[in-house]
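Lab meeting tomorrow. Look over both lines:
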Amino acid sequence: MSTIKVAIDAMGGDNVPLSPVKSCYFIKKEDNLKVFLIGNKEKINKIFKEKLDFVEIVDCDDYVSMDEKVSTSLLKRNTSMKVAINLLKEKKVDFSLSAGNTSAFVSYAISELGMIEGIERPSIAVLFPNITGGITVFMDAGANISPKPVHLFQSALLGSLYSKVVFNIDNPKVALLNVGEEETKGDELRKQTYKLMKEEKNINFIGNIEGHEIFSGKADVIITDGFTGNVVLKTSEGITRSFRTILMQEIRKNLIGKIGAFLISKNLRNFSKKADYSEYGGGILLGVNGNVIISHGRSSPRAIYSAIKLGEKIVKSKLIEKIKEIKWELQ
């Protein structure tokens, strides 16, 4: 396959440009990747210890801060985010990636790339580990906080296709996150969405799923609104970090705990790896006319590298082309 090209917003995130730059050192030449780092060239060059042939710096002084509000004036500025999206729009890269301000990156993607014909709203699909050893596609993680039933219905179709095409899950089980399993549970949004999903033959809808079942592996794809999804995402990350901290505090309290920790150290490392967000890197913004990868604001270099590898996997799967084959306007 030809070289896959990625545009990375080197100024987006909590630890920039360090994390985006350092992520490039995880890439091997045999990966056949070309990286465009967009940001302040002087700051980026200060971090590079050695020149990497597959990396090209695109100088851009303007950037979007993490707390900046989306506005018409912001979308007109030639920020590092906008340059990354426009390289994708101009087909100079195969996907764009940022760990910066999510609202701004989503807004740039919609305004510059547009939506795929027939899809009304985008949705961020992230990956959760589950107890079966597999992954669960969870969406929406924050793109559309006030959706209509049709938006969640389209998210279900997108998530099901994503699970099939990229992760080779045959006939993925799709569930709607709700406060109970019964069809009559939840608010009007959930009730109307349930009816739409129940009648759709192109998805394997298994009904409602409750919060305590998210990581159970019961569903391959879980659908919710962006507000709820973002709360779930950040809560799960906080619980994972807190659990590890509490566990280590208890282990270190006495000699027996320390000996036990030594004996199960490999198991603890495996747990940390499976629960670590950096193993998954981020999520894809589904529905826009291009491959847009959104990473966590606090992404480490390894997390951004994982996001790059996710983007590579998505490009190779030709997901966007397969989404476009669906006649969304008929849904």
About this structure: The domain at 121-278 is CATH 3.40.718.10 (Isopropylmalate Dehydrogenase). The two ends are 34 Å apart (CA to CA).
